[in-house]
Write the structure tokens for this entry.
Amino acid sequence: MKPQPIPSEIHPSAARPENIRPRGILVPLLTPLLAQDELDINGLERLIEHVIAGGVYGIFILGTTGEGQSLSTRLRRELVEHTCRQANHRVPVFIGITDTSIAESIRMAHYAEQAGAEAVVLSTPYYYPLTQSELLQYTRTVVSRVSLPVFLYNIPGNTKVEFGIETVRALTEIPLIRGVKDSSGDMNYLKELIGLLPQRPDWSILVGPEELLEPAVFLGAHGGVCGGANLFPQLYVDLYQAASRGDKSRSNELQNQVRQLAGHLYHHDQYSTGVIKGLKIALACQGLCGDYVAPPLSPYLPQSRHAIIEFLEQFEKDYLAFPKNKQPL
């Protein structure tokens, strides 16, 4: 179904693509699912309202946390359409367009624009390893064929190839590219990215690992793309705000809470996909959406589920007030 156009008069200027400059928390939205190829539309709507109410800067779909590469093209487009319609330009929507095919990335970017998204996010292709010269040409080719602002996504742990600093330096010459999300976890690399800002003061540098949000902001990063913001958006917004105003005491307290959350939710198996599994169980506890994960992933084992539920109960008592609609699994 073709998305219906939204009247321009309700499109706030801050969300217009030409003004996109993320500062704060961009939530990499989980994809609520009912089955392998069935979107949980009601859960998606509840989740979007939850994160917007929590004060996030924007919503990023079809990224790693959103299981983008496990979803069919049909479901990805359905997700784009419903997310843009539900957000209704109250916050910017960023769409992941990374694919092993340049043509498919470009098609998704065009669909995102038609649906009303404000920006797209592009990582390195994740099958054939590329040289930096090939990566530079690849990025230039994709960006030359899209109209929305583009954010680069550096996640070499999943794609095998990083955006080298000299490659990023060369890409600062392209006006449509507006910044980088760095999920490498390498603080020296992040420092080098921040060092490029004099060449592009309009860029945003965002950090992926939420355990590094506080030190990244103190280094000069502009915010984070934090999976835990699906669950407790206000916690991450408060952390960013405390760090950005230089309140080290408060930001350190909040960062410790975030580290506790990550440590107890995400690490019940050996892979980074534990972020998805843990968060989906936690969101199910809150009654926001179910905990179905897209194949080939499988859910946490029962003992891990119980450990997460027990931790959340204690976390609630110590730090937070859960929503009244919290439901037992």
